[in-house]
Amino acid sequence: AQLVTQPEDQVTVAEGNPLTVKCTYSVSGNPYLFWYVQCPNQGLQFLLKYITGDNLVKGSYGFEAEFNKSQTSFHLKKPSALVSDSALYFCAVRDTLIGAAGGAEHKL
Q1: What is the DSSP letter of 107?
Q2: SS3 call for 42
Q3: CATH code given to domain 3-95
């Protein structure tokens, strides 16, 4: 079974300050992890993914996320937040086990 949790309902930071959107997960096999963003009145946009390799993943719009296997986390980070970063952020996981379904959760 797959489970994704974004523990914070809302994240508030001042423009120019670091931004972190937390995500933890639970999977049976090895995780494929994804972040998406949905800006107001727009569709879902892909930000970044972790499949294998380097734990630090660089994505679109200056975002990055670090895969932490021991803490089962994949937190989304941006060094300097912009007003335009105000959006819904979706963390998603897919299990590598054959036939396993994915899970997702979204937060502001």
Answers
A1: E
A2: coil
A3: 2.60.40.10
